[in-house]
């Protein structure tokens, strides 16, 4: 594969991977304006974020079998078309109920891009390059929290929050064109693959019976929900509690994303010296400690705006180390069922994330304590699951053995 071709594939797959996060991050600064426009509260607006997470959770399980049955591109086209239509419906939303519903369908469309892009990494690149490609995708993914909230803040301030969804529809059109002309079909459709419930369930059960998969999928998914706690609660914490403007919030969000993205890139260097399992263990222990300190400091009012940003930054750094390693370890035992494994892993992450975001919407924003408590719960439960689950892994498949190591 030529370097130009390699670059093109990574960029298109990166754009697909970033579609869902961009859809989340870009409208966050508009929460207060959306609440005012739709005559509701910021907490109820947060339910539109919860419905998005629920849509992604359900959609991942739907698209996994479709990608294995019809190849990668046909289900991807359907998902992108659904995303475009739903984004336009969000643009025309005139009630919070309509926005919550249309965000659900927007998520169903976006998760086709997420599942397909992960599966296509396994299809298009040598296994020895998989972790390197995943790291590059995370780097592209980092453009979302660095760019989207800042842009969303300026759009909301100078125009209207509705315009955000019009822009998202336009971006998805461009991504669709890139998929058509630049991305090859990477998986031959399997006419023998059954879409009847029983074979699909059996396929998922085959994946779920693998101890290495369920241990790292559950532990990683729960720990990853710490990121969802931050994403869901940050508009309330920074704009309602600390009274920063939408523009300033966008810059804070961009700054904090450096922690998540920077640590995920540091991981490429760490796994040259340490096993992925060692990195996950250490990062989870640090995340638990930092979250506990965050809870205590926030409850005692020891933290101002700067202190809250600093503590959140540390926790997000830990999540950035945990996520790529647990993903690699989850998928390491699989080749044939990579699509189903990817879908299950993503579905679990988003299911936990949706529960966390719903939990955030139930709190009245008075301090950063609820966000810190959710981060502590995520890291603590993730560590417990990891310690218990590792006992059932008799013959661990290292990420390096499956090719998930950066070179």
From TrEMBL:
Its main location: membrane. One of its GO terms (cellular component) is plasma membrane. It is a multi-pass membrane protein. Gene3D superfamilies: Multidrug resistance protein D. Keywords: Cell membrane, Membrane, Transmembrane, Transmembrane helix, Transport. GO terms for biological process: xenobiotic detoxification by transmembrane export across the plasma membrane. It is found in: Cell membrane. It holds the Pfam family MFS_1. GO terms for molecular function: xenobiotic transmembrane transporter activity. The keyword Transmembrane helix applies. Residues 9-394 form the Major facilitator superfamily (MFS) profile domain. CDD domains: MFS_MdfA_MDR_like. Belongs to the major facilitator superfamily. Bcr/CmlA family. PANTHER family: MAJOR FACILITATOR SUPERFAMILY (PTHR23502), POLYAMINE TRANSPORTER 2-RELATED (PTHR23502:SF132). This is Bcr/CflA family efflux MFS transporter.
């Amino acid at each position: 594969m030529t370097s130009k071709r390699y670059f093109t594939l990574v960029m298109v797959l990166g754009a697909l991977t970033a579609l869902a996060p961009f859809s989340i991050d870009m409208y966050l600064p508009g929460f207060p304006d959306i609440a005012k426009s739709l005559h509701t509260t910021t907490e109820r607006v947060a339910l539109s974020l919860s419905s998005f997470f629920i849509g992604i959770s359900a959609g991942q399980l739907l698209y996994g079998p479709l990608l294995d049955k019809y190849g990668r591109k046909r289900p991807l086209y359907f998902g992108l078309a659904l995303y475009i239509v739903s984004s336009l419906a969000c643009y025309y939303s005139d009630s919070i109920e309509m926005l919550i519903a249309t965000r659900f369908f927007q998520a169903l469309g976006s998760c086709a891009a997420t599942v397909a892009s992960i599966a296509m990494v396994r299809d298009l690149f040598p296994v020895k390059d998989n972790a390197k490609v995943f790291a590059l995708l995370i780097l592209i993914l980092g453009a979302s929290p660095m760019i989207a909230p800042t842009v969303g803040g300026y759009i909301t301030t100078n125009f209207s929050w509705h315009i955000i969804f019009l822009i998202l529809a336009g971006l998805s059109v461009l991504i669709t064109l890139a998929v058509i002309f630049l991305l090859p079909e990477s998986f031959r459709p399997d006419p023998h693959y059954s879409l009847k419930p029983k074979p699909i369930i059996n396929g998922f059960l085959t994946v779920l019976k693998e101890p290495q998969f369920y241990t790292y999928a559950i532990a990683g998914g729960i720990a990853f929900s710490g990121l969802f706690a931050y994403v869901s609660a940050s508009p309330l914490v920074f704009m309602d509690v600390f009274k920063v403007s939408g523009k300033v919030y966008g810059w804070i969000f961009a700054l904090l994303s450096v922690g998540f993205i920077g640590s995920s890139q540091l991981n490429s260097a760490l796994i040259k010296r340490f096993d992925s399992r060692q990195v996950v263990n250490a990062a989870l222990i640090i995340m638990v400690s930092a979250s506990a300190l965050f809870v205590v400091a926030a409850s005692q009012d020891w933290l101002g705006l700067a202190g809250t940003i600093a503590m959140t930054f540390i926790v997000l750094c830990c999540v950035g180390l945990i996520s790529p390693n647990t993903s690699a370890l989850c998928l390491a035992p699989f080749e044939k069922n990579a699509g189903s494994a990817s879908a299950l892993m993503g579905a679990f992450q988003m299911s936990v994330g949706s529960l966390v975001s719903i939990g955030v919407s139930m709190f009245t924003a008075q301090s950063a304590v609820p966000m810190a408590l959710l981060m502590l719960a995520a890291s603590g439960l993730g560590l417990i699951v990891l310690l218990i689950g590792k006992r059932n892994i008799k013959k661990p498949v290292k990420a390096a053995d499956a090719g998930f190591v950066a070179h």
